[in-house]
Write a structure and sequence with these properties.
By secondary structure, the protein is an all-alpha fold. 49% of the residues lie in helices and 2% in strands. The chain has a two-stranded parallel sheet with strand order 1-2. Helix 6 links the parallel strand 1 and strand 2. Helix 1 packs across helix 9 and helix 7 packs across helix 9. It is globular, with a radius of gyration of 21 Å.
């Protein structure tokens, strides 16, 4: 899809659609729904959560055997809300991605602070016929989007390297911003100077992996983005299961590569040590 401007609402919609697409891809419940063939006797015994996942699957369809571009044309454009926007609010950090024809109204935050909602309310009074919204409120905000990409990246890195120690997987996935370029995923674990970083990374990976599972399972239930533990959660990321990896990469590594590139761009990884993940031996 090329380089996409953060100020472009169409681009924001595409990225949000792709994030949802990928969380559905890694969801254990959604994968199970894709393989589910109900019998007459089972229909009345199916738990409500399972029924909801089946409903979500019926809505969004196959995401593991289908490439994103095909899926978003067939499903996403019809099912994921997309609002036309005349004016939208962005943070100063996104202006570098703007077009020459764009105009900006600067609302400084160093004096009297205005919330995006207050700015939108004022602009709506001036231009009542225009659609004014904030990309950080109506859409996923930059920080939230960044964290979602990182959650997905960790899942893909672990799927590609299931036997790798957690701290190494976390370093490969660039899970902790301040460790990027400092914690070498291939360094000896006997280097005492990195012991604190390794321990911290392991804890973060355990926590983030759990949050990623919650996000994926909530997506399968039709609640996205939501990182609260779903009721009666039974699934898990079975990275040791070869079928899990096989299904996840059935159409190649387009999605894992795209997710990695999003995280790398956020980290400005081109200025740091390259840590692109590789398939395990």
């Amino acid at each position: 899809m090329g380089q996409e401007s953060a100020n472009n609402p169409d681009s924001a919609w595409l990225k949000e659609s792709r994030i949802l697409f990928n969380f559905l891809r890694v969801s254990p419940s959604y994968t199970a729904a894709a393989q589910y063939i109900p019998s007459i006797s089972e229909k009345t015994k199916t738990p409500s959560e399972s029924k909801q996942v089946l409903k979500t699957y019926k809505k969004y369809g196959d995401v593991q055997q289908t490439r994103f571009d095909d899926w978003v044309k067939a499903k996403g454009s019809k099912l994921i809300p997309k609002k036309d926007t005349n004016i939208y609010i962005v943070s100063g950090g996104s202006i570098k991605d703007s077009k020459e024809s764009d105009l900006f109204l600067k609302v400084g935050q160093d004096g009297e602070v205005f919330s995006p909602q207050e700015v939108i309310a004022a602009m709506n009074k001036i231009w009542p016929s225009l659609i004014v919204r904030s990309l950080s409120t109506s859409c996923l905000g930059h920080h939230q989007t960044k964290m979602l990409w990182k959650s997905l990246n960790l899942v893909y890195v672990r799927a590609l390297n299931p036997d790798l120690e957690l701290w190494r997987a976390g370093a490969l996935a660039m899970t902790v911003d301040r460790f990027v370029g400092r914690l070498d995923p291939w360094a000896s674990k006997h280097q005492h100077r990195d012991a604190e970083m390794r321990n911290h990374m392991t804890q973060i990976v355990v926590r983030n992996q759990k949050q990623s599972l919650y996000l994926a399972e909530q997506a399968a239930l039709g609640n996205f983005p939501n990182n609260n533990p779903p009721n009666n959660i039974q699934g898990r990321f079975d990275f040791e299961d070869e079928l899990f990896t096989k299904r996840l990469f059935a159409t190649g590594r387009d999605e894992s590569d795209f997710v990695y590139d999003q995280v790398a761009r956020n980290h400005r990884a081109d200025q740091k040590v390259s840590v692109k993940p590789t398939l395990h031996a």
